[in-house]
Automatic annotation (TrEMBL):
Protein name as annotated: Uncharacterized protein
Domain of life: Eukaryota
Amino acid sequence: MAKVISDIERSTCRMYNRQVATIAWFEADDICGSHSIWIPCFLAFPYFCRFLQCLRQYYDTREMTSLSNALKYATSFPVIFLSALKYHVLPEMWHGVYRPLWLLCSVINSCFSFYWDVSRDWDLGFFSGSFKSRNPLLRTNLLYNNKWVYYWAISSNLLLRCAWTYKLSAHLRHNYLTVFTFSGLEMLRRFQWIFFRVENEYNKMLTRTSLQVPMKEMTIEAERLLSPSHHVV
C-alpha cells in the first residue's frame, strides 16, 4: 500500500491547489512533486504499521522471528528518508554523503527482503547451500513438478526486489514511465510469491497432520490398556 497511499497524498495535494492534470505533475520541483516532505511520510506509513504489528506479535509470543521480521520492515525507513533528502540538502552533500548511504541502505533492504521471501516465507534451502538432497537448494517436498519454476522464482524475486526499492525513493518518482513499469513488475512478483507461500503452508499442514495421527492412535491404545475391562482378575 506504500505507493497507493503516497499517490493519494499527491492527488489530494493537486485537488487542494486546484491543479490541472498535465505532464508537469511529474516534475520533482512542482508544488506537489517529489520534494514534498509528506511523500516519504506516507511511503513509510504502511511499513511503520507492519513494524508495530511485528513488535506486538513478539510481545504476545516472545518469538525471535517476530523481531527479525520487524527489522526487515525497519530497513525500509532509511531508504525512504535518505531519498527524500535530495531536495533538502546541498548537491555536494547529496552526491558525497547521502546518495552512497541511500544506495547502501537500498542494497540491505533488498537483500534482507529477498532472504526473508526465500528462507522464511517459502522455506526453501537456497541459503543453506545444500546440494545433497534430491532437490538442490530447494526442499524435500515440492508441490510443483518442474524444478525450474522454483529456480526462476528465486532469481526473478531477487531482481524484482531490487526494482521495488526504486518505488520507495521519492527522488526517482518523477520518472513516471519507469515507476509505472516497476509497479506492474511488482504486481507480478507478489502474484508469484503467493503460490509458493501457500505451498509452504500446505506442506506445514501435512506435516502437522502426519504427527497428529500417530499421537491419536497412541492415545486410543493407552485408553484401551488402562480400561478396567482389560484388567479383570
